[in-house]
Write a structure and sequence with these properties.
It is built from 15 helices and 17 strands. The chain has 447 residues and is of the alpha/beta class. It is elongated, with a radius of gyration of 25 Å.
């Protein structure tokens, strides 16, 4: 017989229920009602598709946390279905059709291995180890085609919640969906209450807890807030290259550390399409020349076995921009990397020698006119979000922190300061530039 759950979703909760896909990420402000929505989503799925072998889990970072936030809701809403039984010692309920929903904590996730699931909620995955998803829960869903919902509040960018948020944004298969519901947009909390919370909290705390900002947790982040704006405006999405425009590259050339390359197109309006990002360490210029050549192959060309992530994208290149130190001659060869690159067919223009502060300012002014491919640029976007100041002992800023985030940030800075729009717009219809290196490492290739 039909069952009616005593749950009346609000408009945005209803939108989540109706539009979610197999894998879903739900970012929402405090007191949005995500737990109520997630529990009822499980119950509805259990009643619609469940049977004696149907299993679901609601998992939080700790079992006690799962019990505190979800058990009462599970008893209230599932208990309204006649014939539902509850196993208090197991924190589980059995619906009349035999479907089971249990609560779990991920503090001992390895103990869950060997089970299977048809549905899953991961509550506050920012506080879970990444392996909880990749090694424990994801395999549990495989043979059943099970669903997974990740719901919570951002905690910076170096965690599972941000990983799956980016994956959902880059997905082109229809398996993933994502929702962001900040307090300023939902209207669920009174303005007076939000104003009082803002006065009582640090601005970064408020933006994190009520505005769903990944940037807020990063003290001194240079670009994170701008990237939040880009994401909210829909400028981090899937992009296709415009065949009428050349693809330019901007490089941060590492000596003992990583080399980073941004691939972008510049529209006549001044908007840039950031199409791709590549980074590697411990490689010579010939490696990066080969990467450029592979990306210049027709779109859909399969990647070689030794570079499985580099497939053809049909790029036709324009300007290649490098930092000033590319002119420095190496002691071993007496040759600069500018000359070495030219021998491989990559003719660099050199970014002007602006101060670091001026370069960062130029990048900040450029980012509002950038669109990013959410998939191909995911690694670079993550680095840009986390690029931040370093601090002295008394809280005094000391310039950028040089770490793994610096390569992507520096390469974008050289793009912002070194790109010549007059050359790009004055160029003839794009054709493939001749180089001396192709995908097979033989003379006469094209980049």
């Amino acid at each position: 017989m039909p069952c009616v759950i005593p749950y009346a979703p609000r408009p945005l909760q209803r939108r989540f229920h109706e539009e979610r896909t197999r894998f879903c990420v739900l970012l929402c402000h405090r007191r949005f009602g995500k737990t109520v929505a997630a529990v009822n989503d499980l119950i509805r799925e259990a009643l619609r598709r469940g049977g004696a072998d149907w299993r679901a889990a609601y998992a939080a970072p700790f079992l006690g946390q799962a019990k505190a936030v979800a058990w009462d809701y599970l008893r209230r809403f599932a208990g309204a279905v006649p014939g539902t039984r509850f196993l208090e010692s197991e924190l589980a309920c059995i619906l009349p059709n035999g479907a089971r929903i249990r609560l779990a904590g991920t503090e001992n996730a390895q103990a869950l291995r060997g089970l299977y699931l048809d549905d899953l909620v991961l509550d506050e995955p920012a506080d879970m180890e990444r392996q909880v998803w990749s090694q424990v829960f994801r395999p549990m869903l495989a043979d059943r085609g099970g669903r997974a919902l990740f719901c919570g509040t951002p905690r910076g960018t170096d965690n599972l919640l941000h990983d799956v948020w980016q994956e959902a944004g880059a997905d082109g298969t229809g398996l993933w969906s994502r929702f962001r519901f900040p307090a300023s947009a939902t209207g669920y909390l009174p303005e007076a209450e939000l104003a009082a919370a803002r006065r009582a909290m640090e601005e970064s705390e408020y933006r994190q807890e009520f505005e769903c900002s990944f940037a807020a947790a990063l003290r001194g982040a240079y670009y994170a807030a701008l990237l939040d704006e880009a994401e909210n405006a829909g400028r981090i999405t899937r992009l296709a290259p415009d065949p009428a425009l050349p693809v330019h590259t901007a490089w941060d050339l590492g000596m003992d550390d990583a080399t980073a390359i941004w691939f972008f197109q510049a529209e006549p309006s001044g908007v840039w399409r950031m199409l791709d990002y590549y980074e590697a360490a411990g490689e010579g210029l010939a490696h990066y020349a080969r990467v450029l050549s592979l990306k210049a192959q027709p779109a859909g060309s399969p990647p070689p076995a030794d570079l499985p992530g580099i497939s053809g994208r049909g790029f036709v290149y324009g300007q290649h921009i490098a930092p000033r130190d590319i002119r420095v001659r190496e002691l071993g060869t007496g040759q600069s990397r500018l000359e070495s690159a030219a021998a491989l067919g990559i003719r660099f223009s050199v970014a002007p020698g602006l101060s670091l502060a001026d370069g960062i300012d130029a990048t900040r002014r450029r980012i509002p006119r950038l669109w990013f491919d959410a998939g191909y640029c995911a690694q670079g976007i993550r680095a840009l979000r986390a690029y931040r100041r370093q601090w002295r002992g008394h809280g005094e800023a000391q310039g950028p922190l040089h770490d793994w985030t610096s390569h992507a940030a520096d390469a974008l800075r050289y793009a912002a300061t070194g790109f010549r729009a007059d050359l790009a717009q004055g160029a003839p219809a794009p054709g493939r530039a001749r180089t001396g290196y192709d995908v097979f490492g033989e003379p006469g290739g094209r980049i």
